Every structure is written in C-alpha cells, then in structure tokens.
Amino acid sequence: MKMRQNRFIQNLVLFFLFIPLTAISQQGTDEITHREEVTIIGSFDPSINEAFKINLQPATEISPEDEKPSFTFEVLEVVQPTEIVSDPITPVAINPSTRENTYNNMLLAGIGSLLTPYLEFFHSHGQRNQYRFNAHAHHISSFTNIQDYQNSPYSKSGFDLDYTKFLNNHLLNTGFNYQFNTNRYYGYKPDDFPSADFSNDQLKQYFNLVEANVGLTSNYKSNKKLHHELNLNAWYYFDNYQSAETSGNLDFNAYKEYALSDLLDYQHLGMRGQFTYFGSSNSIGSATSMLITATPYFKGNYGMFSFDAGLQFNFLNTNSFDFYFYPILQASANLIDESLTAFAGIDGSIEYQGYRKLTTLNPWLNPVATLDWDRGMRVFGGFRGNVAHKVNYSIQGSWKKFNNMYFFINEPQIIPGFISIYPQNKFITVFDKGSRVSLDAQVTYTVQKSVKVWVGGQINSYSLDSLEQPYHKPLSNFQLGASFVIKQKLTVETELFGSGKRHALDVASFSINEVILDPYIDFNLSLNYQLNDQFSVWLNGTNLLNNQYQRYYQYPVQGWQVMGGITYRF
Question: In 10 A of CB 388, how many CB atoms?
C-alpha cells in the first residue's frame, strides 16, 4: 500500500512539472513569424464558394476562474497485450509527364484588322521566402481612321517592375512604372469646318507617366503583435502642351489586438492615415494643395455580427486651410451561414480631381481645364452571398452627397450669337453640388469551373444644384457574359454590354442646346486554343455589332475589329 502511495505522488509531481513546460514551449511557438511565398502559375478567379471568409477567430485565453475537473487516479494492475501488425506500403507511381510545368515568361503577340499591332510580355521569378521579381511590358496601336472624321490613330505603351524582399518579420516592396499614351483630337468632320486647317502637330496629344513606390509591411503570425504597413508613392505626369502634375503620397496603417470587452470574439484597435501632395501647372498658371487624413478605428466581431467603426479627420490645404471629419461605420450580419450576408455603412472621403485622373477618363480634355477637390458622404447597404456553392450574388444601394463633382462638356469655340468656324473637339470641366442614388447588382453562376455565366448592371440618378443634367455621366449600364472551357483545350468568352442614354451640350450654334447621346449595345467574343503547355493561339473580336456609338459627344468609337495572335510560355 505504501508503494502505491509513493508511485501516486511521483506521478502527480511529474504531471504538474509537465504543465509549465508545455506552456513555455507553446509561448515560444507564438513568436514564430509566418512567411510564405506563393508562385502564381496561371490566372485564377476565386468565387465565394471557393474561399469563405471566417468571421470568428479562435479563442486562446483560459480564464483562471474556470473550474478544474476533479478526477481519481488509480493504477491498473492488468497489462493489456498489444499486437502490432505491419502492412506493407504500396509505393505511388509518379508519372513525370503528368507534372505541371512552370514557366517564368509569357509572350503575347498579335495583329488586328484595323492595322493594330499588339505585343505584351510578362516575367516572374524568385526564391521561396527570399524574394520575388515581376516585370511587365506592353504595346498596342492603331492606324485606321474613322470614316468622315479627322485622323484618329492612337497608341498605348509602357512597362512596370515590382520587387518584393522577404525579411525576418517584414515584406519590403519596391516598384517602378512608366506609361506613354498618344491620341488625336479627332472629334470633328473636316468637311464641316473648311476654315479650320489644323496641322497634325496641333491635333496630337500624348501623356507620359513616371511613377515609383516603396513599402514596408509587417508579417507577424500572432495578432498580439503591432501589425503595421507603410507605403510611399510618387509620380510625375505631363503631356504635349506643357501641362504637368506631380504627386507624393505617404499612407500608413497600424493595428493590434486588444481585449477591451468580454462580449466580443475579437477586437482590433488601429490607426490609418495618409499625407498627400499635389502640384499642377499648365501654360496659364500653377497650383499646389495638400491633404492630411487620420482615422482611428475599432474592429470587432460578435457571433454573426462584424463591424468596423472610426472617425476620419481631414486637413485640406488649398487656397485656405479647412478641416472636415466623417464617421466611418461598416457592419455586416451573416444571416444564413455561407448563403446570405447583409451589410450597411456610412463613410466619407475627400478626393482630388486632377489632370491624371480626368485625362485617363477623357483623353480629349483641354490641357488647361479646371482641376479641383471634391468631398462628400456616402450611405450604403445591401446583400451578398451564394446559393448551393454555385450562384454568387451581390446587390447594393447607395446614396452619395457630393460638393464639387466634375462633369465634361464640349469647349465652346464661339462668341455667343455667332456660328462657330472651329470644331468643338476638346472638353472642359464644370463642377456642381448635389447627390446621386445608385443601385448595383451582380450574379455569377459557376458549373465545375468549366462554365461561368455572369450578369450585372448599374442604375444612377443625379440631383444637381446648378446644372440641368449630369453631362457625360452614364445613367445606366449592363453586362451579360459567359465563358466555357471545352475539353481543357478551347476557351470561349463572350460578353454583351451596353449603356443607357447620356447627356451632352452642343455649343457650336447660336445657342447652347441639350443633346442626348443614344443608348448602345455591343458584343465581344474571344477564342483561345491551347496547342500544348507552351503554345496557344487566340482570336478576339470587339465591337462586333459595328455600332459606332459616341463615348463622348463628337467622338465615335472605331467599328468592329478582329485581332488574332499567339501566346508563348517559356
């Protein structure tokens, strides 16, 4: 009996010694950082049913007040026999021909029916948990003109580089981007303006962009660390008419997990913000402006509910120094697990409507057009989810209040009361205060990754203080498309798209008249046939309904085009 008591005491001592050793070992593993590099072999578009977001984080803390279960220890006198039977392991035969090859380079080359050469190159290489380097270059141009209109050639060329270095606890990212785009102010019929004899140099326009960035992001596995991200970006943008824009932006984000309340499953406290500088100049003047934003925020989750709440403080320096703040609140509720989520929120923003942004949307903008800031609030809400892991859907309604939104109108070239002898082939910006109500909806149906069908649309309604109409803003648009993979060789993609009516102003007559741009519908088709792992041939058709609709007033699009080419991986 005494021997049993001694053995019991020894086992009990060993048990309590084992507990702190296990805790110390576990504490050490919490400090291990997580670094993982993913090599992208091909394009992949995940759907909701393929990647579900987990709204709960596992609890790791045990309250010291938890009741410890009682137990009775008793040594078994009988030793149960154990028989070990070893089954032979059948080796798996690996066929080398079935291994998927990876390539660092991809080259696409083609030619279109509108004398449109096309060339694009991708490169990527790296070493696991060490670094990753990506490079991309492209060129496309067209030399075919639109019937009855001024010559309309264009080109788009550029390259960008990206390098990521994996450090012990951080990721260091650097990048460089250069773009060069050209076009013509072709928006008029020369026969209608015989006195307007423009040379090609007077109609040419080009845009250069030089951009660089560097960023540092923490890579901790534990949420108890202070996660942080810092990004610095700068660019210089200039055109053919002495108009230029310079920008520098520094943004940051830092957050840490805190246990502020026992009611929530997880809680994050954080701070994000940015410092942005803009400088613009043209042939008639220059201006500078600066925006500083700071947003303390709190994220939490309780069961089916998640939320993100904060206050955004904005300091804007233009001709004067102004202060604005907006509430930030986004909440969601998982009503039916993996099938239906309701979301709603309110936020605000301040945005610079600069030369780079506006000429990207409308490259026929006058180089001395007015540039300005806009600010406002937005309220939104909707539903998203999926049905049977095949149908993904999203519907959202929103109301936005703006104070200085841009609109495009054709530039008047006449004295009121006289007929213009010059075309209205350039645009200027006008600004107005008002609100916009929008409704967006999208549905995607996927069948075993080989068939995908999607439909989407948007409806906008504007209420403006001064302008009669939201000039050159689409009031509605839609997309209907499908993609098919046939025997893993042939990929077919189709898309039917269109836009509702848009409003414009005709400024070439005695009085300024309202113009309605007709709605349009068009169709695109793409075929890609995989010859082997390295070669494929493709054929693309755009604007196949040959509707020469006007994107902007006096600027019709080029008609149908067919382009064919090859893809080579090496």
Answer: 7
All residues at 6 or more sequence positions from 484 whose CB lies less than 8 Å from its CB, including other chains: 450, 451, 491, 492, 493
pLDDT, tens digit, 9 for 90 and up, residues 506-563: 987 667 889 999 999 999 999 999 999 999 999 999 999 988 899 999 999 988 999 9
Output DSSP code: residue 31: T
Quick one: which of 224, 222, 231, 147 has its CA closest to 189? 147
Q: Residues 40, 41, 42, 48: what is their CA dihedral angle, to the nearest 10 degrees?
A: -50
Judge if pTM exceeds 0.85: no
Nearest to 436 by CA among 459, 409, 467: 459
- 3-state secondary structure string across 134-203: EEEEEEEEECCCCCCCCCCCEEEEEEEEEEEEECCCEEEEEEEEEEEEEEECCCCCHHHCCCCCCCHHHH
Instruction: Tell me the pLDDT band of 565, cut-offs 50, 70 and 90.
Output: very high
Helices vs strands, H then E, count in the chain: 3, 26
Q: Is the pLDDT of residue 115 over 80?
A: yes
The sign one gets for the Cα dihedral 58, 64, 69, 72 is positive
Specify the DSSP element, H or E, that contains 13: helix 2-30
CA-based max dimension of the chain:
121
- Amino acid identity of residue 116, one-letter, is T
In the beta sheet, which residues pair with residue 463?
Answer: 435
The CB density around residue 314, as the number of other CB atoms within 10 Å, is 20
- Homologous superfamily, domain 106-569: TonB-dependent receptor, beta-barrel domain (2.40.170.20)
Which amino acid is residue 337, in one-letter code?
Answer: D
Four-residue CA torsion sign, 14, 18, 19, 20: positive
pLDDT at 255 over 80: yes
Domain boundaries in the chain? 106-569
Quick: pLDDT tens for 197-228: 788 888 999 999 999 999 999 999 888 899 99
Planar angle of CA 116, 537, 121, nearest 5 degrees = 60
Angle, CA of 207, 211 and 217, to the nearest 5°: 150
* Mean pLDDT for all residues in the chain: 85
262 secondary structure, DSSP code: T
